[in-house]
Design goal:
Elements: E1 14-18, H1 19-38, E2 48-51, E3 57-60, H2 63-69, E4 70-71, H3 75-90, H4 95-114, H5 119-140, E5 142-143, H6 147-158, H7 167-181, E6 192-198, E7 206-208, E8 211-213, E9 225-234, H8 254-277, E10 282-285, H9 291-299, E11 303-305, H10 310-320, E12 324-325, E13 337-347, E14 350-356, E15 364-370, H11 373-396, E16 398-401, H12 405-418, H13 425-436, H14 438-446, H15 451-463, E17 469-472, E18 477-480, E19 487-489, H16 490-508, E20 512-516, E21 539-540
Helix pairs in contact: 1-3, 1-4, 2-3, 3-4, 3-16, 4-13, 4-16, 5-12, 5-13, 5-16, 6-7, 6-11, 7-11, 8-9, 12-13, 12-15, 14-15
Length: 541
Amino acid sequence: MNEDKPIYILPENTQRTLGKDAQRNNIMAAKIVADVVKSTLGPKGMDKMLVDSTGETIVTNDGVTILEEMEIEHPAAKMMVDIAKTQEQEVGDGTTTAALLAGKLLEEAEELLEKKIHATVITKGYRLAAEEALKVLEEVASPVEDQETLRQLAMTAMTGKGAEGQKEHLAGLLVQAVHQVAEGKKVEIGDVKIEKVKGERVEESSLVQGMVLDKERAHGDMPEKIEGAKILLTDVALELKQPEQEAKLSITSPDELQRFIEHEEKSLKDLTDRIIGSGANVVLCQKGIDDVAQYYLAKAGLFACRRVPKSDLEKVARATGGKIVSHLQDVREENFGAAEMVEEVKQGEEGMTFIRGCQNPRAVTLLLRGGTGHVVDEIERAMQDALGDVVAAVRSGRVVAGGGAVEMSVSRRLRAFAKTLGGREQLAVEGFALALESIPEALAENAGMDPIDVLAELRQRQEMGEARAGVNLFTEKVEDTLAAGIVEPLKVKTQAVSSAAEVAQMILRIDDVLISRGGGGGVGSSGAIGGGMPPGMMGMD
C-alpha cells in the first residue's frame, strides 16, 4: 500500500498566507500606515522626527514625506504609500487625508468581514459609494470668487505647518505668483519655481519676477551684474567634443604639440567669437564650458553659467521669452531671452544667479528664507502643498468648505443613498460614510477637542441643512467654515476619495499572499510586517 507523499510546488523560502489571515494581515498593515500619519492631520497636527541610518534628521508633518522616508516592506503597506505619492503628484496636498481615509475604509471593511459579508460585496458597495461621493462633492462645491478665495485656500494649506507664522505674507506671494503665470485656467505647478535660502528670516521671503538659479558665474573675472540682459540659452557644450571611442594621438615633435594646442584654442575662440558677435551678454549653458572658452567670454565681459539643469533652462525660457538653442548656427538675437538685470548674489559662501525684471514672465521664482535648514525645508514643503492647492483651484475653478464640513456633508448623503440599495451593499456604503467621518474626528482629536462631542454636533447641524458646517479649530466651534475662510480645493477631495476607495477595494480582493525571499521576513499570521515594529515597518532608509 503506497503512502501519500506531500507535493511541494513552491520553493522552501516562500511564505504563503491564505484567506482570512491574508485579509487581516493586509488590513492591519494599511491601518498601521494610517495610524502613523493620523496625528499630523490638520492645523493642530503634531510633527514627526525622522532619523535615517546616517543621522540625517527631518522634522515634518507632511504625510507623503513621512511615508516616503519610512522603510516599508509590507506589500499592502506599500500600496498605501503609493496613494499618498499619487495624491502628491496629482494635487500636491491631501496626502494624509488619502492615507487616513483608506485605512479607515479597510477598518470598516474588517468589521463587515467579521459579520460574514463577502469581500466582493464590500468592494461593490465601496465602488457605488465612491461614485456617489464624487457626485455629491461636485454638487456641494462652490466657485472660486476672486483672488481672496485663493489666498484663504493657501493659508488653510499652510496652517499647522512650518510656514504658519508668516502664512498671510507667503500666501500673498503665492497667489501673486500663480496669477502671473496662469493663462486663464491653464497653469502648471512647474512654472512657479521654489528656491530656498538658509540664514534669513521667513518674512524676508520674496517673489522674483523671473528666475533664481542655484548657480555661480563660470569664471571669477566675469562681471557680477549685467543690465539690459540678452540671454543665450543653449544645450550645446561650449567645449571641444571628446571622441566617442578611445583614440590615440601620435605627436612626434614639440612643434606638432604646439600646433595641436593652438588648433584647439582657435576652435574654442571661433566658438566664443560667434556668441560674442551675436550680441548676447549672458550665456546659460546646460552642459560644460571649457576653461579657455570661459576666459574668452570673461574677457569680452559676458556673464555665463554652466551645468544649468534642463528644467531650469526651460523655466528661464518661459520667464524671459527666449528659446533654447541646440545648434550654434541659431545663435541670433530673436532667440535670446530678455531681462532687466542678471546678477550673482552671494548667499553665505555660495552664490546664486538672479534673473530679474522679465516682461510678463510665464515662470517666476518664490525665494523662501529661513533661519535653519530644517525650518526652510519645512516651509518649502508647506509652500508646495499650498501651491498644489491653489493651482488645483485655478484649474477647476471650484472649492469646498474645510474643517471636515465637506466630509460630513458627503457622509450624510451617503447614508441616505444606502437606504435606496436593497442588498448587503448598503452596509458597505454605510461603512464608507462612517470612514469619511474619521477626517473631522481626527482634526478634533489632534486639536485636543472631544471628537465624540464634535461629531455629534456636526451631524446635528448637517441634518438641519447646514452643509458647510465644519469645525473651526481656532475658535473650537462648529460653524460655516467656508465663510470663516477655511477653504480647500475640490480636486484634493475628489482625488483622495477616488484613490482611497481604489486601494481599499484592491486590498480587500486579495485572499492569498505569496512572498518569496532569500531569508527571514515575510508576512506572519500575527500581522508582523517583515521584521520589527511590526518588523521593518518603522525603519528608515
